[in-house]
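Reviewer 2 asked us to include a model.

Predict the structure of this chain.
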Amino acid sequence: MINLGLPGSALKIPTITSDRLRLRGHTEADLEYCAAMWADALVVRFIGNRRLSREETWTRLLKYVGHWALKGFGFWLVEEKVNGAFVGEVGFADHKRDISPSVHGIPEIGWALTPEKHGLGYATEAVKAAIAWSDEHFSRRQTVCIIHPDNTPSIRIAESNGYVRFSATHHKENPALIFRRAPALSALV
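Predicted model (structure tokens):
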């Protein structure tokens, strides 16, 4: 776990490992890696199609910490275990989206990887690790993901991790597909 050293209390974000990856809480030192990723047109083309400034990425990182503090879940920074190289981000959020059908109160998984790490199976591995964590911590709760219909790689990742298409909709005037996943049977016992 990472201790962010917040005044008055210690916020603990779990560290998760998979065969090749480490998922850990963000730190202030991660800003430059994250800002470079979110400023890349290839990364954002299906996530609002707008590159983020360094300032906007900083706000995003603060939202991640806020999720952990308020909801008990959030996003992790993903890095290679062998050398600590930045891979991207994966995690759960409650965005309070104005979307129909409503996904209020349902943790929404999301992921983004730096383009240099696309095609290596890292996204599938990171999502699988995050889902394993959620099955232990979201007892009896489904999770959802929202994906642009043209984002075929992300749709494959979602489906390979047990997400099933639930609805086609729009979010902020962009087409979107909602996928949902029931908790693992072991989480229901």
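The chain has a mean pLDDT of 90. The beta strands are 2-3, 12-13, 16-17, 21-24, 75-80, 86-93, 108-113, 143-147, 164-171, 174-181. We have added this to the supplementary material.
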